[in-house]
Amino acid sequence: MKILGIVGSKRKNGNTYSLVQEALRVAQEEGATTKLIILGDYSIKDCTGCEGCKDTYKCVINDDMQKIYPLLLEADGIILGSPTYFYNISADMKAFIDRCYCFEVFAEDDRSCWLSINEALGGKYAAVIAVCEQQDEKDMGFTPKAMSKPLEALGYRVVDTVKVFNLFKAGEALKDNKSLEHASKAGERLVRTIKLKKDVETKIKELKIG
Ligand SMILES: Cc1cc2nc3c(=O)[nH]c(=O)nc-3n(C[C@H](O)[C@H](O)[C@H](O)COP(=O)(O)O)c2cc1C
User: Fold this and answer.
1) Topology of 2-207 in CATH?
2) Tens of pLDDT along 99-108?
3) 169: Cβ–Cβ under 8 A, 6 or more apart, which residues?
4) Of the candidates 84, 158, 168, 197, which lies 20 to 30 Å from 13 by C-alpha distance?
């Protein structure tokens, strides 16, 4: 089982990085193979809305996102982490999410009818981690939903949403046991959910259901 962690902060060893890493550490303990990527290490252009992906489910922009697509396709589960920037996700995370539009499929004659290729492939799982400086949930704004809503549209069931407040300086997350614990639970739940899915798939075959 493969879990991919995706960090939307450019701060190396920042709070988002530490919490995604913690979730992956526990996912690995639970038996997953894990990989962490920092979007800032990749050159990811904005989606141009050209619709060039619609026949092939592949984006036509030739940049580093082409290195990330195979990682997404092979991962059984993903963890998206973003700091709150002005009540929303970071620009890196937004650019990444928009570039996943190539995985959305619309009926030719009715755009209200759509699904994602992940749904067609049997559905996947995700967790999100949102990190902000202020203490009040309203100051986190749209950050968690700005990740979980697109993930759902992309065919991921979001099994945990970690909302972390009161972290400002890079590295503070490592001293915040409550946040670390919540991140680790998210990693654990993600792996356990995927294991359960695999068990149920086997049992369905044995029971000859469907
Ligand atoms: C451009 C910018 C905008 C920010 N906007 C908010 C905000 O709206 N609400 C908030 O609570 N914190 C805000 N912050 C603080 C960060 O979310 C906080 O420092 C977080 O811990 C950074 O995570 P990182 O260490 O992973 O980069 C902002 C920080 C920056 C640089």
Assistant:
1) Rossmann fold (3.40.50)
2) 999 999 999 9
3) none
4) 158
